Automatic annotation (TrEMBL):
Coiled coil: none annotated. This is Pyrimidine-nucleoside phosphorylase. InterPro entries: Glycosyl_Trfase_fam3 (IPR000312), Glycosyl_Trfase_fam3_N_dom (IPR017459), Glycosyl_Trfase_fam3_N_dom_sf (IPR036320), Nuc_phospho_transferase (IPR035902), PYNP-like_C_sf (IPR036566), PYNP_C (IPR013102), Pyrmidine_PPas_bac/euk (IPR018090), Pyrmidine_PPase_CS (IPR017872). The keyword Glycosyltransferase applies. Belongs to the thymidine/pyrimidine-nucleoside phosphorylase family. The keyword Transferase applies. Homodimer. Residues 345-418 form the Pyrimidine nucleoside phosphorylase C-terminal domain. It is an enzyme of class 2 (transferase). Its cofactor is K(+).
Length: 434
C-alpha cells in the first residue's frame, strides 16, 4: 500500500477499508509515514468526513496502536465517564466516589487541562501528596478493592492519537467530528471499561457550540462504543456558564468536597446525581434512573460518598485531612473583587473568557509543559439570571499577585448585564442512546 493512494482516495470522497486504515495507523506509528502525508490525509477528512464504518475503524486502529488494559479479572461491570471539557467542570471528582460507594467499579483515566478548560488530574494534584501516576498493577488493585481510581494515561495509551493530535493542532484539523470522536475513543476504550457515560458539553464554554454539533459528536461516541461492545449513553449538557461557582484547581476540589458533604451548588449536585444515575443503571446496580438517582442522593446525604472520597485520596497517597478542613488546600495570597459597572441582570456570560482568565492567573496551561499555580482561580458571586447593582462583586479573583488589572478587565467584559433575565437553559439538553 502507498499512503498517497489513501490520501487521494479520501480526497476524491472514497471510503477507506479497515485494512487500509489499520495499515495507515500502523505505519504512521512506526514512523514510516511522514507528518506531511498525515496532514494531507487529515485535511481531506476535515473536508470530506468519514463514513461511520471508517470513523469507527479509525478509532480502533488508534486504540490498538498502544496498550489496552484488561480489567476482566475484576468483578462487576466497570463504568467510566468522559466529559468533552468545560469550564469549572469538576464533576469527575465527586462522581467517582459517589458511584464507587454504591458498588460500581470506576476505572477513570483522566487528562490535564489545556487552554480554557481545566483537567481532573491537575485539580487532584492540589491535594497534598495525591499521586496520579500509578502503575497498571496499582490501578487494578485499587479498582478491585475500593472500586475507584483516577489516574493519568501511561505513555503507551494510543500513541497514534498523541502524534495525530499534535499534527491536527498545527494544521487546522482539530474541529472535525470523526477525528474528535476517534481521538477521544482511542484513549477512553484503552482503560478496559465495560460501559461509558459521555457528558458532551454544549455552549459558549465548550468545544461544541451548537446542539447540532454536540448531538453529532454524541452519536459518534455512542456508535463507536457500541461497535466496541461497550454499553454507553451520552448527555448533552449546558456550558453557557461555568459549572458551579469555582474555576481553578484547589478551589474546584473545595467545591467538590462541598458537593460530597451535600452542600454544593445546585447545578454541580444535579449533574453529579444525573451522571451517577446513568452509571448505576449501566453498572447493573439499579433498574431505573429514578431508583438510581434516589440511591445517589442517599449516599450523598448519609456521608458514604464523602468517605469513599477520603479512601480514594488515601489510596493515591494524598492527605485526606483536606476533606475535613479544605483550608489545608493551597490558598492564594490575595482576594481581588471584580465588580459590576452597571445595575441589571446577568444575561450572558462568556464562559470561554472566564476559563482563559483562570489560565492567565496561572491556574491553566497555555502550552503543554507550563507549570500550574494550583491555588489561584475565580469564585463566581453571580451567575446567569442573577440581579446585580452597580458595584456588586461579580467574581472574586484568587491571585498570587496584585498585578491583575488586565484580568479584572477581561472578567468584567465576560459578564453582560442587561435589563432582564435570559431564557433559562436546561442543565441537560438531550440524552443520546445507541
Ligand atoms: N479531546 C480529545 O481527546 N481529542 C480531540 O480531538 C478533541 C478533544
Amino acid at each position: 500500500m502507498r499512503m498517497v493512494d489513501l490520501i487521494t482516495k479520501k480526497r476524491d470522497r472514497g471510503e477507506l477499508t479497515n485494512e487500509e486504515l489499520t495499515w495507515m495507523i500502523e505505519q504512521y506509528t512506526a514512523g514510516s509515514i511522514p507528518d506531511y502525508q498525515m496532514s494531507a490525509f487529515l485535511m481531506a477528512v476535515y473536508f470530506n468526513g468519514m463514513t461511520d464504518a471508517e470513523r469507527n475503524h479509525f478509532a480502533f486502529a488508534m486504540l490498538h496502536s498502544g496498550d489496552v488494559l484488561d480489567l476482566s479479572d475484576i468483578p462487576g461491570i466497570k463504568v467510566d465517564k468522559h466529559s468533552t471539557g468545560g469550564v469549572g467542570d469538576k464533576i469527575s471528582i465527586p462522581l467517582a466516589p459517589l458511584v464507587a460507594c454504591l458498588g460500581v467499579p470506576v476505572p477513570m483515566i483522566s487528562g490535564r487541562g489545556l487552554g480554557h478548560t481545566g483537567g481532573t488530574l491537575d485539580k487532584l494534584e492540589s491535594i497534598p501528596g495525591f499521586n496520579v501516576n500509578e502503575s497498571e498493577a496499582q490501578f487494578k488493585k485499587q479498582v478491585r478493592t475500593i472500586h475507584e481510581a483516577i489516574v493519568s494515561a501511561s505513555r503507551e495509551v494510543a500513541p497514534a492519537d498523541r502524534r495525530i493530535y499534535a499534527v491536527r493542532d498545527v494544521t487546522g484539523t482539530v474541529e472535525s467530528i470523526p477525528l474528535i470522536a476517534g481521538s477521544i475513543m482511542s484513549k477512553k476504550l484503552a482503560s478496559g471499561t465495560n460501559a461509558l457515560v459521555f457528558d458532551v458539553k454544549v455552549g459558549n464554554g465548550a468545544f461544541m457550540k451548537t446542539i447540532k454539533d454536540a448531538r453529532a459528536l454524541a452519536k459518534a461516541l455512542v456508535s463507536i462504543s457500541q461497535t466496541a461492545g461497550v454499553k454507553s449513553v451520552a448527555l448533552l449538557t449546558d456550558m453557557n456558564q461555568p459549572l458551579g461557582i469555582t474555576i481553578g484547581n484547589s478551589l474546584e476540589i473545595a467545591e467538590s468536597i462541598a458537593v460530597l458533604k451535600n452542600r454544593g451548588p445546585r447545578d454541580v449536585h444535579a449533574l453529579t446525581v444525573a451522571l451517577a444515575a446513568q452509571m448505576l443503571v449501566l453498572g447493573g446496580k439499579a433498574p431505573s434512573l429514578e431508583i438510581a438517582s434516589g440511591l445517589a442522593e442517599d449516599a450523598l446525604r448519609d456521608g458514604r460518598a464523602l468517605t469513599a472520597f477520603k479512601q480514594l485520596i488515601q489510596a493515591q497517597g494524598g492527605d485526606p485531612a483536606v476533606v475535613d478542613d479544605p483550608r489545608k488546600l493551597p490558598q492564594a495570597k490575595y482576594r481581588i473583587p471584580v465588580t459590576a459597572d452597571q445595575s441589571g441582570v446577568v444575561d450572558q456570560i462568556d464562559t470561554n473568557t472566564l476559563g482563559l482568565a483562570a489560565m492567565q492567573l496561572g491556574g491553566g496551561r497555555a502550552k503543554k509543559d507550563d507549570v500550574l499555580n494550583l491555588a489561584v482561580g475565580l469564585v463566581l458571586h453571580k451567575k446567569l439570571g442573577t440581579p446585580v447593582s452597580k458595584g456588586d462583586t461579580l467574581v472574586m479573583l484568587h491571585a498570587d499577585t496584585k498585578d491583575v488589572a488586565d484580568i479584572v478587565g477581561l472578567v468584567q467584559k465576560a459578564y453582560h448585564i442587561g435589563p432582564s433575565a435570559p431564557k433559562k437553559s436546561p442543565l441537560i439538553h438531550e440524552i443520546i442512546r445507541p
